[in-house]
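Record type: monomer structure entry
Structure origin: computed from sequence
Chain ID: A
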Amino acid sequence: MNDVSREISAEVLRTAREGPPVAVATIIAAPEGADPGAGAKMLVRKDGGNLGSFGGAAFERTVVEDCLAAMDEFPRRPVQALYYQPEGARIHRLEARGGAEAYEIMVELVEAPVTLLIIGGGHIGLSLATIGEHVGFSVAVMDDREMYANAERFPMADFVKHGDFTEMIAEFPIGTNTYIVMVSRGHKQDETALRAVIDRGAGYVGMIGSNRRVSTVLRHLAEEGLPLEALERVYTPIGFDIGAETPEEIAVSIMAEIIMAWRGGTGKQMREGRPPIKAGAVEA
């Protein structure tokens, strides 16, 4: 293994543990005598930077662009095959595998596990766990009541525990890829949980409740001396206003906000960017 391959492997390992997503492009097939040839690798970062090289010029730039586009489809398509046909200084994308003069490249997308930590195993927590697992989160559930936090109730979860919230949260690994939702049975439990997670560096912290309820909790914590900047970053009241009423609908509104925070969305309706409709001539 050469130095570049070792560096790529090391960065992939870091990414798998805690880093931002990367794409690794590997040349599976190349024209005879081509440089780079089969086996060459290049790692592409989310900001467009790369480690390793496919020789620069148009070929490398095209592969980098396609790797960045592939990241936008992650995790739906974690592995993709790309095909290219060189023509002088130009490179053409192909829809399918070409002949002996074409390149075939495998793109593998790597991202650290993203955890959805649900504090509160009630009806909303159950719906959140179901949706969260479906969209690719590793689900963890905590509750201070065993009947609401057990493997039978949450078969989709990777971690389920009941007990004292402060103790459980203190033992749970939390980082930028941890998305925390507090949907317990009362503001006292949510306040306890928020106090325990507020300075742990989570990627998202959200708490359910009415404006009055969440204002009371935030005021109490501010009076205790918790940083106002951290409290202001809490998503509360949680979710989007979609008129949700049932636990399942509320969970949808919450998960939409979490996905927005995870993927860097805007929360706007997609139709806001639609161009105006212009009437045209009607064909006979």
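Annotation 1: The first helix runs from residue 3 to 17.
Annotation 2: The CA atoms of residues 52 and 97 lie 24 Å apart.
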